[in-house]
Amino acid sequence: MDLTPKQIVAYLDDYIIGQDNAKKTIALALRNRYRRMKVEPVLQEEIMPKNILMIGSTGIGKTEIARRLAKMMSLPFVKVEASKYTEVGFVGRDVESMIRDLVYESINIVTREYEDKIKDKIEGEVHRKIIEILVPPLPTTATDNAKESFIKTYNVMEKKLLDGSLDDKKIEIEVSKKAHVEILDSNMPMDMSSMQESLNKMLGGMNKDKIKKEVSIKDAKVLLRDEASESLLDQDAIKIEAVKRAQNGGIVFLDEIDKIASSKTNQNQDPSKEGVQRDLLPIVEGSLVQTKFGQVKTDHILFIAAGAFHVSKPSDLLPELQGRFPLRVELESLGEEDLYKILTNTKNSLLKQYEALLAVEEVELEFDDSAIRAFAKYSVTANEMTEDIGARRLHTVIEKVIEDISFDADEKKGEKVIITKTLVEDKLDKIVDNEDTARYIL
């Protein structure tokens, strides 16, 4: 997490074109979290995260900026849609479930890290169990010749196991019989969650039996790895670290916040919209949320809200909620040059993905620069004529051009296919020229 704001922005530049203000604001917000962890503990509690409100149309990089950062820094990150929540007392998800989702994500991240630390120990345990099935241990009364033969056989089988040549061989393994009730619903009331936990403990104590399964060695490795991992990992330490990380490093991306804003001009407002805002307020400003892994303080969780605000305005949100998002960034719409750069300058761009997919069929796909510029031009035109969906329009436009080539890929094995400007124009001219057709096809 020890990255300067400039390094964070440079990383984002590899994946997202433009939106420099948004990148800078989020990079500073993350750097400030690192700085906070380095100050005195007394002052740490006083330094609150500066939550961010991003305003802009769909497909211009709002979600991608937050998602890429969370992935880069191994931070717990959840994306939720504000429109899915309902006021307490209505049927639907309550706002606290987003924090429970965040803790589940944090548990997954920390578990993976702990597994990586003892990866060799887990693999060693799995291999030991499988080899013991393939080459059963000798009795203590075995002769020297038998022991010598056993060692040779053991070494041969171990080598074959490691190089994967035994993966298809069937063996019988014993795994724990799981009498387990698991309902992964973060929206479940806490009393129900506690009941589930108690039931699991009771059933786990009653049933220690093993069941036999005949599986391939490849599948046995997976089943035995899960068991070895469960027995070797310190689950309590994982839970403590995960809750701590969710509290101090968690990011909640609250999308479509404009959908719960109550526009003053609209007379037919859904009364629960304001209720959802009121329910969100204590979560964003800092409160304790009960989860199955313990209480989670939301004071230092970073909330990034985003919305298009076509119908409503940020000022239509409750004043108290507006105050909890002090940093506001307006993202610009994407122009033709931006879309061209998205196709050519980003890591794992859409064009590289298509090239890789058709390479599986042994078809070499190549895009002329003029064709790439045509993709950008037609995408901008379609966005202007219909709804502006930003860079997502590129998916539709390129797919329309590549569709027939992809369908007939088995007949083009070993060939090189060049996508030219002429081909793009042939496929898209008639569609884009007709506004009604463009609405339905692009």
What does this protein structure show overall?
The chain has three domains: about 190 residues, Rossmann fold; about 110 residues, no CATH class; about 90 residues, Helicase, Ruva Protein, domain 3, CATH 1.10.8. Helices cover about 55% and strands about 10% of the residues. A five-stranded parallel sheet has the order 2-5-8-1-9, with helices on both faces. The longest helix is centred in the first third of the chain and has 21 residues. Strand 6 and strand 7 form a beta hairpin. With about 450 residues, it is α/β, with parallel strands linked by helices.
CATH topology of the largest domain: Rossmann fold
Record field, number of beta strands: 11
How many domains? Answer: 3
Q: How far is it from the N-terminal to the C-terminal residue, by CA?
A: 41 Å
N-to-C series of helices and strands:
HHHEHEHHHEHEHHEHEEEHEHHEHHEHH
Question: Average pLDDT across residues?
Answer: 83
- How large is the count of helical segments? 18
Using the alpha-carbon principal axes, give the shape: flat
Report helical residue fraction: 40-55%
Task: Please report which band the strand proportion falls in: under 5%, 5-15%, 15-25%, 25-35%, 35-45% or over 45%.
Answer: 5-15%
Which helices and strands occur, and which strands form pairs?
Elements: H1 5-13, H2 20-38, H3 41-44, E1 52-55, H4 62-73, E2 77-81, H5 97-117, H6 119-134, H7 144-163, E3 170-176, H8 190-206, E4 210-216, H9 217-232, H10 235-249, E5 251-255, H11 271-285, E6 288-291, E7 294-297, E8 302-307, H12 319-323, E9 327-330, H13 336-344, H14 350-359, E10 364-367, H15 369-385, H16 392-407, E11 416-419, H17 421-433, H18 435-441
Parallel strand pairs: 1-8, 1-9, 2-5, 5-8, 10-11
Antiparallel strand pairs: 3-4, 6-7
